[in-house]
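Colleagues,

For the teaching module next term, I've prepared a clean inverse folding example: a structure given as tokens, and then the sequence designed for it. I'd like students to try predicting residues themselves before seeing the answer, so please don't circulate the second half yet.
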């Protein structure tokens, strides 16, 4: 199978992808910073993938938040969490 004559070279595709990724990641940081010190309601989805002692949930805007559970928390609960840290791919919080 032959490529199209007007196909963009692979090196140009990679350059464009890297630029797009850089813009997206800078916006993610800015957006996550807006959540600091706010109270968010989360649906608890399960244990954190990186730390089994912590739970993971999602806000109504689909942001992943990890937090230390208390004895009553279980998967499927909705809890209020204060966001204490903003990271590129997740937020960290504490139950209020």
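(Answer key — instructors only)
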């Amino acid at each position: 199978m032959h490529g199209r004559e007007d196909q963009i070279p692979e090196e140009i595709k990679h350059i464009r992808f890297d630029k797009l990724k850089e813009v997206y990641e800078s916006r993610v940081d800015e957006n996550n910073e807006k959540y600091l010190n706010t109270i968010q309601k989360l649906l608890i989805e399960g244990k954190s993938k990186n730390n089994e002692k912590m739970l993971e949930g999602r806000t109504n805007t689909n942001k992943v938040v990890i937090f230390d559970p208390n004895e009553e928390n279980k998967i499927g609960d909705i809890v209020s969490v204060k966001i204490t840290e903003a990271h590129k791919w997740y937020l960290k919080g504490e139950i209020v």
